[in-house]
Design brief:
With 195 residues, the protein is an alpha+beta fold. It has a domain of 134 residues: Nuclear Transport Factor 2, Chain: A. 17% of the residues lie in helices and 25% in strands. The strands form 2 sheets. A 4-stranded antiparallel beta sheet has the order 2-3-6-7. Strands 1-4-5 form a 3-stranded antiparallel beta sheet. A hairpin with a 2-residue loop joins strand 6 and strand 7. The longest helix has 21 residues. The chain is globular. The chain starts with 65 loop residues before the first helix and ends with a strand.
Length: 195
């Protein structure tokens, strides 16, 4: 059998209607039916968040530029928000210093309330404002001012009962200290900006 015998090409048999280029012909391979994407469902009193989109590192955040640092700072807070929703902090850990007390505190809450069947609802974090002068301090860090806005947070026990709630905190100003090493941004510390 030749390689072209299975290609489905060639002229149609005599008496066949002409092929409509807009419709699939009998010899074409049917395309795979797209699998419906499961829709995102935030956590609530009925259970954990489902199908939470994983934040992706923007291309700009890979560069050692002012725009790259600002894009990275937004991405870091998106990962934090993802952690509150899912309990998954695995993407934060390799880009965050264990010396960052605020980071470790947030990760402890996230991890602690997503084990043993418990979950968190709310807590999503947004960054309405991110800016840097992009000047390196004597200690090697760049400083980034980040305004963070977080939703109220509800803590649910494994049996679905509400343990406690935290109201929506005031929007906070944060100072992120980051360095660029081995071709990547890395957070050394995040601390509140005193008002």
């Amino acid at each position: 059998m030749s390689a072209t015998a299975c290609s489905g090409g060639g002229a149609p048999p005599p008496g066949s209607p002409p092929a409509d280029p807009q419709s699939p012909s009998a010899t074409s391979t049917p395309s795979a039916t797209p699998t419906p994407t499961a829709s995102y469902k935030p956590a609530d009193a009925t259970g954990r968040a489902q199908n939470v989109p994983v934040p992706e590192l923007p291309e700009a955040a890979k560069a050692e530029t002012k725009e790259g640092l600002e894009a990275f700072a937004r991405y870091w807070f998106q990962l934090l928000s993802y952690g509150y929703e899912t309990g998954d902090i695995s993407r934060l850990e390799p880009i965050t210093s264990p010396e960052c007390r605020a980071c470790e505190s947030a990760k402890a809450v996230i991890s602690g309330w997503h084990e043993g069947g418990r979950w968190l609802a709310g807590g999503k974090v947004q960054t309405p404002s991110v800016s840097t002068t992009f000047k390196v301090a004597p200690d090697g860090n760049y400083q980034v001012a980040v305004q963070a806005s977080q939703q109220a947070l509800s803590y649910y026990n494994a049996d679905g009962t509400l343990n406690s709630t935290d109201p929506k905190p005031d929007d906070t100003g944060n100072l992120m200290l980051a360095i660029y090493k081995n071709g990547k941004w890395y957070v050394n510390n995040i601390q509140p900006i005193a008002g």
